[in-house]
From TrEMBL:
PANTHER family: BLL1145 PROTEIN, CLEAVAGE AND POLYADENYLATION SPECIFICITY FACTOR FAMILY MEMBER. InterPro entries: MBL (IPR050698), RibonucZ/Hydroxyglut_hydro (IPR036866), Xnuc_lig_assoc (IPR026360). This is Putative mRNA 3-end processing factor. SUPFAM superfamilies: Metallo-hydrolase/oxidoreductase. Coiled coil: none annotated.
Length: 335
């Protein structure tokens, strides 16, 4: 299929739909943007108009202020945008995350954004969307990446808490999605005690609670109300940037943990000074990525932000047409 016949065209700003005159997850301000989810590498302020799920619009307002865009439109069902028809479908990545389906030029394209297929109690589960072209992320697009069961990682954390009751356990987790998922995993693992959170997580955790995500008893991780020694045996969650300051020194002999798919790479854990790596990811690993392509069976697979070459090679070996998009501006597993 010739690239010019495609409903979407890669441009420096991001994926562009000529039929609808909009961009998907553009990396710079545009007149009209469709946004898959609220992470900062996909959802930026300054667009003329934004269409996204209600939760993503709310999250963007929390992060950027109510005036993050001139006009906003909540996604709902199939919607006509210019000469294209668009719809949003759960991606299983973070609260409000969606795959965007575009029907235009006689073809169906599914843009996955970021997605995951493992159970995640903090957001809606991924749904398959039939398509002619599937645009997949490749954050962990190498055969070496096979994420363990998250409950196994939680058991490792709780065992450490029991083994070192005199120490605080500090978990680095990104403020949108990862922090709330770790909290829910802890609740599912039987941790009913209060969980202490850094102030940077408060607004987004409050929003999850308002949306019916039962995060339980969350308390501010501040030494203004509690003495340092009282944090012994407690679990504290903070954005990774907090560990680069003196903030972590407020707690008794802290065990530094970090929740990320990248914690399977020991060099990354050592680089961050992580004592307890927790391999917990909100992205598909290699088995789930390749399984998704196989199950959707698109005529073409487009690969973006990540290990594009390995996924392209796998597609070639499977006799599948695939194209690397080489889009810039997306982080590996950050905000």
């Amino acid at each position: 299929m010739a690239r010019g016949a495609s409903p979407l065209i890669p441009k420096p700003e991001g994926l562009y739909c000529p039929s609808g005159d909009f961009f998907i997850d553009p990396v710079r301000p545009v007149d009209r943007a469709l946004i898959t989810h609220g992470h900062a590498d996909h959802a930026r302020a300054g667009h003329g108009a934004v269409m996204a799920t209600r939760q993503t619009l709310d999250i963007m307002a929390i992060r950027y202020g109510a005036d993050f865009t001139a006009t906003r439109q909540e996604a709902g069902g199939e919607t006509r945008v210019g000469d294209a028809t668009v719809s949003f479908h759960p991606a299983g990545h973070v609260l409000g995350s969606a795959q965007i389906s575009v029907k235009a030029a006689g073809q169906r394209v599914t843009v996955s954004g970021d997605y995951a297929r493992v159970p995640n109690a903090s957001c809606a589960a991924w749904e398959p969307v039939p398509c002619d072209i599937f645009v997949t992320e490749a954050t962990f697009g190498l055969p070496v990446f096979r994420h363990p069961d998250p409950q196994t990682e939680m058991a490792k954390l709780l065992e450490s808490v029991r083994a070192f009751p005199e120490r605080a356990h500090l978990i680095g987790a990104y403020s949108l999605g990862k922090a709330q998922r770790v909290i829910m995993l802890l609740r599912e693992a039987g941790w009913d005690a209060p969980i202490f959170i850094h102030g940077a997580l408060q607004k987004l955790c409050d929003y999850h609670l308002a949306e019916g995500i039962p995060l339980g008893d969350l308390r501010p991780a501040t030494t203004d109300k509690m003495k340092k020694a009282e944090f012994a045996g407690q679990i504290i969650i903070a954005p990774p940037s907090a560990f680069e300051a003196t903030w972590a020194q407020r707690f008794p002999d802290p065990v530094i943990a970090f929740a990320s798919g990248w914690m399977s790479v020991r060099a990354r854990a050592r680089q961050r000074g992580v004592e307890l790596p927790l391999v917990i990811s909100d992205h598909v690993d290699w088995p789930d990525l390749t399984r998704t392509i196989t199950e959707l069976d698109p005529a073409e697979t487009w690969v973006t932000h990540g290990r594009e070459d390995a996924v392209i090679r796998w597609c070639e070996l499977q006799g599948r047409a695939a194209i690397p998009l080489h889009l810039a501006g997306y982080e590996d597993e950050a905000e």
